[in-house]
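ZP: hey, is the flavin-adenine dinucleotide complex queued? I don't see it on the tracker
AM: it wasn't, my bad. submitting now with these inputs:
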Amino acid sequence: MPGHRDFDVLRPATLADATALLLRPGAMALAGGTDLLPNLRRGLHEPRWVVDLGSVAGFGDVTCDADGWHLGAGMTLAAVARHGGLGTELPGLAEAAASVAGPGHRTVATLGGNLCQDTRCVYYNQSAWWRAANRFCLKHGGQTCHVAPQGRHCHAAYEGDVAAALLAYGAEVEIVGSVSGPRRSPLHRLYRDDGAAHLTLAAGELVAAVHVPRPQRGTASGYRKARSRLAMDFPLAGVAAALRVEAGVLAALAVGVTGTNSHPLQLAGTDELVGRPVDDETLRALGKLVARQVTPMRSTVTAANHRRLVAVAAAERLVRELAAAASAAPVPGSAPRLAANDA
Ligand SMILES: Cc1cc2nc3c(=O)[nH]c(=O)nc-3n(C[C@H](O)[C@H](O)[C@H](O)COP(=O)(O)OP(=O)(O)OC[C@H]3O[C@@H](n4cnc5c(N)ncnc54)[C@H](O)[C@@H]3O)c2cc1C
Ligand code: SF4
């Protein structure tokens, strides 16, 4: 591979073997490779060992029981997007998966790889010679952050689509590691606010599965993504929401946002909107919550404030549409579905 030193590919058959191999210094996990391989080509990582998870037994399985949906981290995004049961009960998840990259990518790209994809920045996702000409940057090989040169913090943005939907559904991740053993934690704890190290996984740890509770009857949910190109592009901002309307007022509201911060956001403060009708005033209050919590920086070619405004507009429109669909739903238990329109 040009611009990269050689590495060995290891193909464990079990998660236990995979996590043991990942403890080797210089080892990296490979799932579908649609994020990792372009980054390797650009010389952004220099692994000695690449642990290919493609042969791990049962890694892509999906089941559903009283506890909810259990999705193996190796499930491909194409499988998530076309799964009938998921599309009916968790339409925002199916829509988010269907909006990732192009059809070819989605046949190999995985749920775990999407959640754990690297953060992105115009000064980072470039060839090695481009970055060398700019004296690299704080995140990789340099001394200065070109986005915020006065600081010592990386502001690269997390731009995975699927996490926003899973946050709106209150998902948990199951993490396995040779040293720590298995644990389950809310998805938002997988992330921290640091563009150079946005995952809280310890060395050798992997996301093994995602657990999503079954939405209550009458829940309406969806994902709205704004991007520069409709065909295939990362989100400028992506918003997912899950809500219920009872007797004309919000009975529940959860919102996930991606593309604007170094980690996907579970919007705080939505409980304050419960009990209110979904009118202009409530939507303005929702917009204010989004505007206060997103922190887009100059890490993309699109102006930071534009991304903030897009996130606000996407959240307001999505919640308005979902509330209308939920109010119109005649049968309790139906989950109104919205298309993954662009804002
Ligand atoms: C042209 C193009 C367009 C794209 N557009 C989008 C887009 O619109 N939206 C979007 O979200 N993404 C997009 N992507 C990025 C990428 O395709 C997706 O994030 C994809 O879901 C990554 O999954 P993967 O299985 O290929 O991950 P990989 O590339 O195999 O892995 C990604 C990272 O996650 C780690 N990893 C993989 N699996 C696990 C696991 N189970 N536990 C812990 N760590 C793990 C790897 O070590 C690596 O660091 C795009 C990529 C390309 C090339
Ligand atoms: S935000 Fe700064 S440190 Fe982070 S990748 Fe961009 S330029 Fe580099």
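AM: back. The two ends are 39 Å apart (CA to CA).
ZP: great, adding it to the tracker
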